[in-house]
Design brief:
single chain, alpha/beta, 26% helix, 332 residues, globular, 7-stranded mixed β-sheet, 6-stranded parallel β-sheet
């Protein structure tokens, strides 16, 4: 029964509509899995006054969209493109489609899910309302997100959208198999609670689990210390969900080196790196403490700029993992 169900899922065909930043991924999906995915390029133009002049692909001269399962590849890297993509999702759901699956590898509002004083805006709630208010095509819109920063955000969704939470950690685990990594470090207790369990099946490598955290020093100074585990002589990778400017990641790497780690690497699912802050971690930068810096292409507008050939960065492609998770509903 289960094998029959899996064969059905793995043979499902999708019509792909993609945000402009995700078009290379859409093309690779079609080229790699031509029997399952068909990419229809959308024209994301603007009128002279700056408003949208969008033409969704796949409708003319023949309608390939209505009655079909639609895979929408989204990238919310700024507010302008986000609103444009919601406009397209609404139009698709009003076009008699069979289903809509939205792959949003990185949710940029995941860190803004609460307010500490009245008047602040929790933009995670705003996005959740927008997704939940999408029209219904007869079934909920499936929203696939990778390594959401605050897991409870899934419960902000209601009505016509349901979160499908995935993780990019399997890509790191596969990479570890071809390296001498024998230690996993986390920059704080939250990351350790979230990710440490997924490495338990790699016990044959005798991985040392190291947990770091911040402690208060003189005055308001806070510094990173090792709370659990011993990095001495270990080849370590620090694991976290995302990096912004990378201050905590750098301090964690420096502490591990000072404690005798043989080498220190870093992995984050999402390389946000505002204002090209990745340059500080590259060779010659003032934060160049990592042997390798691994990430995924969840934010292509950033990772397309990383110097992967002559720098420390290596970008893992999410494509095959997306296909796996699309069919299996959970990352294993």
């Amino acid at each position: 029964m289960y094998s029959h169900q899996m064969k059905k899922r793995e043979s499902m065909k999708y019509q792909i509509i993609a945000a402009e930043a995700c078009e290379p991924l859409a093309q690779r999906l079609q080229d790699t899995y031509p029997d399952r995915f068909t990419f229809h390029k959308t024209s994301w133009e603007k009128f002279p006054d700056g408003t949208d002049q969008i033409t969704i692909g796949g409708f003319t001269p023949v309608n390939f969209i209505s009655g079909e399962h639609i895979l929408f590849l989204a990238s919310f890297h700024n507010n302008d493109v986000t609103l444009s993509q919601f406009s397209v999702m609404i139009a698709l759901l009003q076009s008699f489609i069979e289903s809509l699956t939205v792959v949003l590898p990185f949710s940029p509002v995941g860190t803004m899910e609460r307010v500490v004083k009245e008047g602040q805006l929790a933009t995670a709630n705003t996005h959740a309302h927008m997704f939940s208010s999408l029209p219904s095509c007869g079934r909920p819109t499936r929203l696939m997100v990778y390594d959401l920063h605050t897991l409870q955000n899934r419960f902000y969704l209601h009505g016509n959208a349901i979160a499908s939470l995935q993780t990019a950690i399997p890509l790191l685990k596969e990479k570890i198999k071809s390296t001498n990594i024998n230690g996993i470090a986390f920059p704080d207790d939250g990351a350790a609670k979230r990710f440490s369990e997924v490495f338990h099946d790699m016990h044959c490598r005798h991985l040392e689990i190291i947990v770091c955290g911040k402690t208060r020093g003189d005055g308001d100074e806070r510094r990173v210390v090792i709370q659990d585990g011993n990095p001495r002589g270990r080849h370590i990778v620090i694991v976290d969900d995302l990096v912004q400017t990378g201050g905590t990641l750098y301090e964690t790497g420096k502490v591990l080196r000072e404690a005798g780690a043989a080498s220190v690497n870093a992995f984050v699912s999402h390389a946000v790196f505002p204002n090209e802050s990745w340059k500080r971690f590259n060779k010659g930068g003032d934060r160049a403490c990592f042997t390798k810096f691994w990430t995924t292409n969840s934010i292509p507008t950033v990772t397309d700029q990383l110097p992967v050939e002559d720098g420390i960065f290596e970008v893992f492609d999410l494509m095959d993992l997306i296909v796996h998770d699309l069919d299996h509903y959970s990352t294993t």
